[in-house]
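Crash report, auto-generated. Payload:
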Amino acid sequence: MPQVIQTQNLSRRFGEGDTLVRAVENVSLTIDSGEFTALIGPSGSGKSTLLHLIGGLDIPHEGSVKLSGVDIASISGAALSDFRRDHIGFIFQSYNLIPVLTAEENIEYVMLLQNVAAGERKTRVSEMLELVGLSGLGHRRPPELSGGQQQRVAVARAMASQPDIILADEPTANLDSKTGATLLDVMRELNQSLGVTFVFSTHDQMIMDRAKRLVHLRDGEIELDELRESVAT
Amino acid sequence: MLTLRLAFRNILRQRRRSILTGLSVGIGYLVCCVAISMSEGSYSNAIRFFTEDTTGHLQVHKKDYLRRPNVHKHFALEDITESLTDVRIAAYSARLFAPGLAYAGDNHAPANIIGVEVETEPLVTRIEEKLTAGKFLPASYEINETMPALVGAGVAELLEVGVGDELILISQGGDGSVANDIFTIVGKIGTRTSGDRHNVYLPLLAAQNFLTLDGRIHEVVVRVNDIHDAIQVATNVQQQLDITATDIVVSPWQTVQASFFRSMESDKRANEISLGIILFIVFIGVLNTVLMSVLERTREFGVLKAIGSRPWTIARLITIETSILAALGLVIGVILSIPLIWWFATTGFDMPEPIDIGGVKMQSMRGEFSLDVFIFPACIVYVYALLVSIFPAVKAARINPVDAMRST
Ligand SMILES: Nc1ncnc2c1ncn2[C@@H]1O[C@H](COP(=O)(O)OP(=O)(O)OP(=O)(O)O)[C@@H](O)[C@H]1O
Ligand SMILES: [Mg+2]
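Recovered output after restart:
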C-alpha cells in the first residue's frame, strides 16, 4: 500500500512562556492509502490541530507533512488552495455547508472550482447523493435538512472532488449516536468501495469501535497506535 | 457562474439590509442626477441664449481679432467660403464692426456699428425676433435715399428717437478718413438692459460703404446643426482654411465666450466634487454593510477556503456582491430619476427672481434630460462600489480557515 500521509516530527505550539501549549508535539505518523483511521484522545489532546496540519490549513513549527509524496510546506497561496481542492476533502464538526446553496450546489461547488464539465458534475452529484442516501433531497437548502442529513451532504461534498484523503474533525459530535453511527457506516462504505483514505477524530466510543486503526493522542503526542482485528458493524 | 449565483443569494439572504443599502445608493444617485440635470440644463439654456442671440456657434476672424479687435483686421468673405462646406454647418453670415458715435438733434450716444448680411443674419441669430418696433433691415434700398439702420433700445433712448427718425453716425473709415453719414431708423431692437442696447445695425453693403471697406468683413458667424459639434466643426474648418487662407482663425463659442466657458467649467467641476462627496458619504454606509456581511460570514469563508477556494475567488465574490448592491441602487435610482428629471426638463419651474448664470440672466429653471445626466453619476457609483469593496474583499480573502472555524 502506498503511503498517502506521512508526518515527520510534527510540532505545533500555541502561546509562549507560562501559557505555552504544545498542541501537537513530535508526531510522526504514516497512513496508507485506503486506511480508515480514527484520532482519539481527550479534549485538548491535539486532534483538531493535527488534522489542520495534515490538511495544510495550519503551519507546523517543526517537522513536515507529505501528502502522496508532496511536501505541503513547499506550496503556498493559490497553489495550496488548488492542492487542497484536488487532493483533500474536509468534513467539519458543525456541517459547515454554504447555507444559500442547495445540497446539490454544495456538492457541486468544489467540482466547479476544478472546472469539471457540466455533464460530469451532474452525474457525480446524483451519484454522491445516492451514495450518502439523500437521493431526492438535492434541491433542499441546508436549513431544510436535519443535522445528520447535512453532515451526509458534507460527506458527499468532500467526496465529489475525488480527493485522495478525507479529513473529518469530529464529524459525529453534533449528531445523536444512532445518526452518528449511520454516518460512520456511510463513510466506511465509501472507504471500502472507493478506497478513499479517511482520517477522522472522535470522542465517541461507538464510533471508535468502527475504526480499524486508532491513534491515541495525549497532550499532543501519540500515546498509542492501535491496529485492531475485529471491528464492530 | 456559481460565484454570481452565490453573490445573488447572499444579497437576497439579507433582503431588508440589501434594500436599505440599495435605497441609499439610489437616493444618492437621484440627488446627483438632479443636480447635474439642473446645472447642465441652466448652462445649456445660457449657452443657447447667447449663441442664438449674437455669438453663433463658431466665429471666423482675422488672427487675434477676438483678443484685440481692430478695424484693420478685415478680410473678404470669398476668401473663406470654400472652407465653409462642412455638412454640419447650418448657416453663416458675415459682419463688419466699427465703434462710433450716433447723433440726433442735441443728443448723442456711443454706438457699436455692425454691418450685417440682411438675408443670412436671421438664419444665424434671433435678431429678427428681438425687434420691438418697426421692421428688420430691408434686403434692398434706394441708393439715393438715406440708408436704413436698426438701433438698440439704449441708443434710441439716449437720442430720443424712434422708427422713421434720422440719426447721424460718425466713425473712422478703413482708410483713416472720418466716416459720417445720415441714416433712417427702420426698427428698434432689444431692451434698455440687453447686451445689444448700444448696437446700430446697418446692411453690410451700407456699412462697407460708410466705412470705406468695400468687400471687407471682420467676422463670419456660423451656426451648426448640433451645438455639440461646434469644436469638431471648428477644427475641420480651420484645417481647410490653413490650406487656402492665411491668418484666419476659427473659434468655437467656447473660445469666443472664453470667460463664460471657464467659469462654467470650473463651476461644473466644483459641482462634480460636491456630488462625489455626497456619494462618498453614501458609500461609507455601503462599506459598513459589506464589512458587516463579511464579518458575519467569517466561518463560511473559512470553509470555502478550506475546501479549496483561492483567496482571489473569495475576494471576487465580495466585489461582485458589492457591485450587485450598487446595481440595485442604480436601478432604484434610475426608476426614481427618470420621471423627476423628465419633469424638470419639460416643465421645470420659474424663478421668483432671475438668476445670473455666467453673466446671462435666466428667468426659469429647466433641467437637461440626456444620457450624460444619467451616465456620469452611474459611473461614480460603480467606481465607488469597486473601491468600497476592496477592503472587505481583502479581509475576506485573508480569512484563516482554522481561526474562522474555531469561532462560532
Ligand atoms: N488558536 C489557538 N490558540 C491557542 N491555543 C490553541 C489554539 N488552537 C488550539 N489551541 C490549544 O491547543 C490544544 C489542542 O487543541 P485541539 O483543538 O487540537 O484539541 P482537540 O483534541 O481537537 O480538542 P477537542 O476534542 O476539544 O476538539 C488545546 O490545549 C487548545 O487549547
Ligand atoms: Mg477538536
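Post-recovery validation: The longest helix of chain A spans residues 177-194.
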